[in-house]
Amino acid sequence: MTAPDSTSLPPLARPGLDRAAGERLTPGLLDAAKTDAATRVLVIAGDSAPLSVPGTLLWRAPSDIPDGAEWAFLGRRDDGTALLTAVYPAQEEELFPAPAGWAGLRSAGADLPPADAGAFVAALSLGRWLIDAPFCPACGSLTMLGDAGWSRRCPQCGRQHFPRTDPAVIVAITSAVDPDLLLLGSNALWGADRFSCFAGFVEAGESLESAVRREVAEESGVEVGVVTYRGSQAWPYPRSLMVGFLAASLDDAAARADGEEIAAVRWFTREEVGRALAGEGDVVLPGRASIAHRLIADWHAERP
Question: Per residue in 55-107, pLDDT tens?
C-alpha cells in the first residue's frame, strides 16, 4: 500500500513531533527534564488540553504543574527543548485557567499546527494507558513505569507491558455505476441526521483488506471490489489506529443497514456531500479532526 503525500494526510497524522524515541532508555531522563526550567509540559486532563490562543496548545514549565500527574517524555523541539506530558483523569473543574480555555482533541485537533497536533494525540493516547492500566494484566501487581513513561514492568512476575493500539479500518464506499455517488451510514447511537464512513476493528488473524470487506458487508450489505488505501491516523477513543480506505461497490442496489449498529445507509451525491462539508443542509458529517472527514472531503474534491 502506498501512502498519500503529507499534504493530504489527516490532521492528526501529519509529521511534526520529534519523539526522540532513542532517548527513552536514558537513565533519569524524566527527572532531569522535570528539573530543567526550559522544559515544556503539555497537561492532559481527561481528553482535554489547555490552549494559549485558539489553535495553539498552552505549554507550561514543570514547576507550574499541579501535583498528582502521571508523567511521560514526548520528545524534543527543533532547538532541543524537552517536551513532557503530565496526565490527569477527567476533572470536574479545570486544573488551572487557560487563556483560550480547554479543548478536546476532536474539537481542537484539526486547527493545531502539526507539532502540536502530534503532541496532543501522542499525549492523549499514552496518557489514557498511564491512567487506566497501572496493574499487571498477568498477575495483578502494581507495575513500575519505565522507558520515560512508555512501558511498565511488573516487580512481581517480571513482565514488561507497553501501550496497546487496536487497529481498525474505516471505509468510504464509491458507487459501481456513478462516480458522483458515495455511500455513508448513520450509527444507531447517533442522531438520524449524522452520517459517516463505515468502520470496525480488525479481528484476530485478519488482514486489513479482509476487515474492509467483512465490515462493509456486515454494516451495509455491500460487497466491494477494488480497495484503495488512503492513510491512517491515531484515534485515542480509546486506543485505535484508524486505517482509511476507499472501496468500490459491486452492486449499489444491495445497500441496506444492518439494523443493529447501523440504523440507515444512504447514497449521497457529490453536491449533497459538498453542502454538508460546508455546514449547509440537514446532514451532519464527521468533524475535521477525523480521518472520516478527510476520506469524504478527498472524494468530494476528487483527489487521486
Answer: 999 999 999 999 999 999 999 999 999 999 999 999 999 999 999 999 999 99
Global confidence as pTM: 0.91
Q: In the beta sheet, which residues pair with residue 169?
A: 200, 243
> pLDDT for 218-272, tens place per residue?
999 999 999 999 999 999 998 999 999 999 999 999 999 999 999 999 999 999 9
